[in-house]
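hey m, so remember when u said the tokens were messed up on ur end? i reran from scratch. heres the input so u can diff it against urs
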Amino acid sequence: MKLLIPRITDKTKRKDMRDFANRVLEKWIRLPFSSQPRIVSCKIISITNNVGVIQRHGLINVLPDDAALRIIRKLNGAYLKGKRVGVKQYYGIPKESDPYLT
């Protein structure tokens, strides 16, 4: 499941986001028959709006989905690099509705 952390600070690096999510995953109690929770990928995207303001957003891909849901519950509203952030599921934009994708 992909997670979105919108409007992160300029100081936030990929390692910071990975450490942020690992706070929850390190405390994960794993049963012998369950898969180990892990962060598959972590990236920062920068989007410039129509007035030239750059917004940075974090995307974290976590497996399995129940680990991602736990990260959302535990870290939504937590502080990342001194700023309170929201953590939510990222659904993406369908290619049909995005005017920038051809």
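this time it looks ok to me. Residues 14-25 form the longest helix (12 residues). if urs says something different then somethings off w ur setup not the seq
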